[in-house]
Amino acid sequence: xxxxxxxxxxxxxxxxxxxxxxxxxxxxxxxxxxxxxxxxxxxxxxxxxxxxxxxxxxxxxxxxxxxxxxxxxxxxxxxxxxxxxxxxxxxxxxxxxxxxxxxxxxxxxxxxxxxxxxxxxxxxxxxxxxxxxxxxxxxxxxxxxxxxxxxxxxxxxxxxxxxxxxxxxxxxxxxxxxxxxxxxxxxxxxxxxxxxxxxxxxxxxxxxxxx
Length: 211
Prior knowledge:
Elements: E1 6-13, H1 18-21, H2 42-49, E2 55-58, H3 62-71, E3 77-79, H4 96-99, H5 103-110, H6 123-143, E4 149-156, H7 158-168, E5 184-192, E6 195-204
Parallel strand pairs: 1-4, 2-3, 2-4
Antiparallel strand pairs: 1-5, 5-6
């Protein structure tokens, strides 16, 4: 009783793939990272090596697992399919230029949360699985009475990170929060008055705070 819970949640977006370079929509298609691009993560790798993580989670897709392997963290890793990027269905592998005159695509751009991707995933379905993962994680942290503060790393995709940040940090929206490939961010949380509150948002390697 009375324990004050804290959590530092580290997100890392996977490294660059060929489709990322070509600005193609990449959701559940399982492309590998470009190995030569992983050297851009050297500073992040050195920063994370100095930390201890109580939990590490990753999307099951290759681009995440290959990026995590490059970071060479010593912590045990759990693979969770709920951390996948949105399923872009018929739009997988296509570019904005190829889609910009598609009425369904324009509708999705205007209101992705309440629109459906043809033969893919709706915004509501995407949000539901992401919420389910983090609700479960936050409850696990809360039930751990041995440690009042824990550090968790999540290797995932740009859409997942942008959605979660926009949900937890009121000053950011899905479209205005940009996270680059191979970039790390840290969100610090405190449990107060019956809910998890985000107290800060920082880039990793640590520079200036972005909140």
